[in-house]
């Protein structure tokens, strides 16, 4: 038996949107910590490449989280194929950047559907398995938009703020049964797309870094390490909370 409380050996993690970005970063960190990881996403070639990079502890299932009626089947397939789910990371999500007065009802509902309805549906189905086993860690991905106001992302901000509230409600319901539920709120994390956007908008880059006390952008592994913590026994007394991983951005001035 390991004495390392961060060790995930023997645990199975399901990570949605695991083929790129933060999803892959979290999958890599969990694989390195000893977990078996199943990533999902809509694009098979992307998932194939990600699994090749992640190694023998990683597997994939092509799945669209927007199709809510298929989510129970996804959970059954994962458990029948790979074993009981110990950790679920609700990472899949979409954003939309446009002035609020230009956001249609259809636009708004699309963001809420993916970022909130699908997240709840997967959480519910995994909880049905975890609660009788009296163990499990459910991890959500929140956002700086749930911490302070950011313009032109009204629908996204609403969805992530709702997730933050849902976590507290579900934690009070699930935690007595040994199932913990928490969120990570990433700050500004490096990616080729983000860095390119920042370089093309020096004023915005200066504004972001100016209110980040650590004075730099984060990296995908910073989110991955936090996910490992929340998935592990090291966080056995942590539930119902949102952890900003943002270099202080959410409290900076």
From TrEMBL:
Belongs to the short-chain dehydrogenases/reductases (SDR) family. PANTHER family: 3-OXOACYL-[ACYL-CARRIER-PROTEIN] REDUCTASE FABG (PTHR42760:SF115), SHORT-CHAIN DEHYDROGENASES/REDUCTASES FAMILY MEMBER (PTHR42760). Keywords: Oxidoreductase. The keyword Nucleotidyltransferase does not apply. It comes from Solitalea koreensis. This is Gluconate 5-dehydrogenase. Residues 11-187 form the Ketoreductase domain. Pfam families: adh_short_C2. GO terms for molecular function: oxidoreductase activity, acting on the CH-OH group of donors, NAD or NADP as acceptor. SMART domains: PKS_KR (SM00822).
């Amino acid at each position: 038996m390991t004495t390392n409380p961060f060790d995930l050996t023997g645990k199975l993690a399901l990570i949605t949107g695991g083929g790129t970005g933060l999803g892959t970063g979290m999958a890599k960190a969990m694989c390195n910590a000893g977990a078996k990881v199943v990533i999902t996403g809509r694009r098979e070639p992307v998932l194939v490449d990600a699994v090749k990079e992640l190694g023998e502890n990683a597997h994939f299932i092509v799945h669209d989280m927007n199709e809510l009626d298929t989510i129970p089947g996804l959970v059954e397939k994962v458990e029948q194929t790979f074993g009981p789910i110990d950790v679920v990371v609700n990472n899949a999500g979409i954003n939309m950047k446009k002035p609020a007065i230009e956001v249609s009802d259809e636009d708004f509902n699309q963001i809420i559907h993916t970022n909130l309805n699908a997240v709840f549906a997967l959480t519910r189905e995994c909880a049905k398995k975890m609660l009788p086993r009296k163990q499990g860690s459910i991890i959500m991905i929140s956002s700086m938009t749930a911490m302070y106001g950011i313009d032109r992302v009204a629908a996204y901000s609403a969805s992530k703020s709702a997730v933050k509230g849902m976590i507290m409600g579900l934690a009070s319901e699930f935690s007595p049964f040994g199932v913990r539920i928490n969120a990570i709120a990433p700050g500004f994390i490096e990616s080729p797309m983000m860095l390119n956007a920042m370089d093309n908008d020096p004023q915005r880059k200066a504004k972001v870094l100016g209110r980040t006390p650590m004075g730099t952008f984060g990296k995908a592994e910073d989110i991955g390490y936090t996910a490992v913590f929340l998935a592990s026994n090291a966080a056995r007394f942590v539930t119902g909370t949102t952890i900003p991983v943002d270099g202080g951005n959410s409290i900076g001035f």
